[in-house]
Design a protein that fits this description.
InterPro entries: GH (IPR017853), Glyco_hydro_b (IPR013780), TAT_signal (IPR006311). The chain has 472 residues and is of the alpha/beta class. The protein folds into two domains: 123 residues, Sandwich (Immunoglobulin-like); 331 residues, Alpha-Beta Barrel (TIM Barrel). The strands form five sheets. An eight-stranded parallel barrel has the order 3-4-7-8-9-10-11-12, surrounded by five helices.
Length: 472
């Protein structure tokens, strides 16, 4: 969906600037919460595809070895390319773009694959629907998987195609050269794309674009259409699609910091509505990918670290197979101050691009550490289990590890108070001693320690606390 502040970085600004120091902890008291972990339940299995981040052909730092190292250290396993709306203007064979879009000369597909291999990550490729053809897409599959042997599994057809103007001038941000911009035209084209692409490599999985339930233009029936976007697309493409694509930016220009931190809970509701659409058209087996999301405001300070970790795990618990952050590098949209006094750069990236006023290029923003914390509590094949919290400002997620351990992630959304958490268990008997990983307001990195116990932990204000338990 279109959203207020997604930007494109048009050139590298590599001047080194000083980062504003994070404020000291605002803790003045301690709140209390109770979390009951039910290790006998199974909400979902952690998929190998879960943790992703968007990359872009306009990113002058995309192919840097530093970028690859940072992504690997963060636990990012999937990299979406060539980047949002640029996907619908990009011609991969010539590394050129229509509509005057900027492209960094070094950010072509071959260089992307070199970086991805270094980061030990795999691509999700968005083929050009807006100005491309099924033959161009099939040629990309052939080059990537037959000629080069990359074995890329996941391919999307177009980016936010519902924003092509079919629903009026309020929904007209996506480049689309087709005369017929209806959902039926897109869906019929998808059938052709899928056939051509799978004729080259039958093992690939191809995804189609849906609108996000409760976000316009979801529910709007355009002139001449038999239903809204999702109904028309799913009726035509049906079981030919292997996964469906959702984008989620759950904020407006008036969203407050406190409101933003409640939004991850609504992600599960969106998944329920998507599943209802899939069930309606007999395609319940299709996987759900959230290939773009971001929170805010603020976009770069500690609340984003909390939001990122909470959103990824909430969506995983709901059975989503992939969650892909917008963006690796993005660029500053101006500065402001969050509730703790920290400077926000309105940059939706995980890592600073070094734009004017930002920290030095390749400095991780705090959202980076929120995503990195995921790798401390879960891995592919682990089981997400229930861990309800008694306090609205304390989110809890629990993961039964394949080695018999049990890990918790406690997220304190109170900026002023630490939270003392009483822990109890059903279906698991832990040893008292616990290892922890912490990322709080004043942290410059995630720190590991032996602290707290299996029955009591204290989470710092605006803090993330991973608790690692072993069976007694």
């Amino acid at each position: 969906m279109n959203h207020p502040s997604r930007r494109t970085v048009m050139s590298a600004a590599l001047g080194i600037t000083a980062a504003t120091a994070l404020p000291a902890s605002l803790a003045s008291a301690s709140a209390a919460a109770a979390v009951t972990v039910n290790a006998s339940t199974s909400l979902a299995t952690v998929p190998a595809t879960l943790v992703g981040a968007n990359t872009a052909i306009y990113d002058g730092l995309l192919t840097s070895t530093t970028t690859a190292g940072l992504l690997h250290a963060a636990g990012v396993k999937y990299l979406r390319y060539p980047g949002g709306s640029h996907s619908d203007v990009y011609h991969w064979q010539t590394h050129t773009a229509e509509n005057g879009a900027y492209i960094d000369p070094n950010a072509d597909f071959d260089n992307l694959m070199t970086m991805a291999d270094s980061a030990q990550a795999k691509p999700i490729i968005t083929v050009n629907y807006g100005s491309g053809t099924a033959q161009e897409a099939a040629a990309w599959v052939e080059y990537a998987n037959v000629t080069k042997g990359h074995g890329i599994t996941y391919w999307e057809i177009g980016n936010e195609v519902f924003g092509n103007g079919h629903y009026g001038s309020s929904y007209n941000w996506e480049y689309d050269t087709h005369t017929d911009k209806s959902p039926a035209a897109y869906a019929n084209a998808c059938v052709d794309y899928i056939a051509a692409m799978k004729a080259v490599d039958p093992s690939i999985k191809v995804g189609v674009v849906l609108t996000t339930p409760t976000f316009a233009p979801d529910g709007i029936v355009g002139s001449g259409d038999s239903g809204d976007w999702n109904d028309v697309v799913l009726a035509i493409v049906n079981t030919k699609a292997d996964f469906v694509v959702i984008h989620w930016y759950p904020y407006t220009s008036s969203t407050t910091e406190a409101e933003m931190l409640t939004k991850p809970r609504s992600g599960a509701d969106i998944v329920t509505k998507v599943r209802a659409d899939l069930d309606k058209w007999g395609v319940a087996s299709a996987e759900i990918f959230f290939t773009e999301l971001n929170g805010g405001p603020p976009r770069d300070t500690q609340p984003q670290a909390l939001w990122a970790a909470d959103a990824y795990l909430t969506l995983a618990e709901a059975g989503v197979k992939n969650v892909t952050w917008w963006n690796v590098h993005n660029g500053s949209g101006g500065t402001s101050t969050d509730s703790t006094g920290a400077t926000d750069y309105d940059d939706e990236g995980l890592i600073s691009y070094g734009s004017s006023g930002e920290p030095a290029a390749q400095t991780p923003f705090r959202s980076y550490y929120g995503i990195q914390m995921l790798s401390r509590v879960c891995a592919a094949g682990d089981t997400l289990v229930q861990a309800p919290s008694s306090r609205s400002t304390l989110s809890a997620h629990a993961v039964k590890r394949q080695n018999g351990g049990l890990d918790l992630l406690l997220i304190n959304k109170d900026s002023a108070n630490a939270c003392t958490v009483s822990l109890s268990y059903s279906g698991y008997s832990p040893k008292s001693s616990t290892q922890t990983d912490t990322y709080g307001l004043t942290s410059s990195a995630i720190t590991h320690a032996t602290s707290g116990s299996a029955s009591t932990q204290t989470v710092p204000p605006y803090g993330l606390l991973a608790v690692h338990l072993t069976a007694s």
